[in-house]
User: Fold this.
Amino acid sequence: MADEQRYEHLIQLAVRGDTVAFEELIRLCHSKAYAVAFRYMKNEQDAMDVVQETYVRLFLKLKTFSYKSRFETWLIRIVINCCYDALRKQKKERCVGEDVSEVIDFIEEAGPLGEYEHPEQAVILAERQAVLQRAVDALVPDHRDVIILREYEQYSYEEIADILNVSQGTVKSRIHRAKQALRIILMEQNPDFFV
Amino acid sequence: MNNQNHNNSTCEQQEIAQIESMMRSARKPAAPSLSDGDMKRIVCTAQSRKRSSYQKRAGACVAALVIGFVALPYNEPIQQATMKNTADNIQCGARLDSYFDPFAAAMSDEEFADLISAADLGYGYEVVEIIEEEDGSFTFVLYFYTDSDSVSNLNALRTAESDPQNLRSFHWKISD
Assistant:
């Protein structure tokens, strides 16, 4: 069964109160929802909190899904909304030392250092990824969304347009402007980045 | 001069390519699996929010009925006075015929309804402001409730101007 047909079948069952179908629906799209949440939240715990909140909202809103957009893109739209809600709440609680913990997160994400011939390279790479991630965070939300969806998660222009409810042309121009903005932010914050 | 511009542009392209390559090579995070306990918690939380949302609506209906009931004796003389004046009745009827609720119209647009639905935190929302734009489109300012408790929701709505984090604007245009 094609993805969309499978989703439609499960949605219909879930709307009628079949929680097993709802669970299957969640499991089908969990990895994609988590991947996007992780890019915004930057750690496993917060990303899991966000996806679980997403599924709660999904449960409540499923009967309003109109099949005008693809189910997966609708879900990712909810994920992004949940991420921004969580980030707004977090903003008040930010603490000093975040930079260091971010680098540690990236080192952990890169896997065991023993896998690398030169472990110091892994650390440098993790540091550069952390710098880049901070620059992505500094982008305006419109730019950050397209960069995460296109460059990190490799969604097509059509899918991004559907998720963000804008035209494909707008997606392309936002990506172009976002990359230029990213380059400027990196040059200003870390002049050595491109050396 | 042209050469310098060309060099700058090439340099910019190389730097952007470097950024793209780093982003695309970033390791994909592996999603931790959802346990049966997680699933149960998700469904229970959703069901409990659904119940509290019904209770909130029922509470609002009761309040509306009480207000309507209390206001009934005052409405009667006004209604009788209005009935005497036929012109008033016609005007009122015309107004009712031409009454247009832009938010209801927007919500009948499935795409717009999907947007609102995706932004809803699960506790419902209140339309705070409707702005009619010059081109005939509308901007709706919505306050999304963050709580199932109706008292704290009302307090939150009252202070929404000083704490706008749950206020969102949505733009909608009648399609041709």
In short: Chain A touches chain B through 48 residues (CB under 8 Å). Residues 99 and 130 of chain A are 8 Å apart (CA to CA).
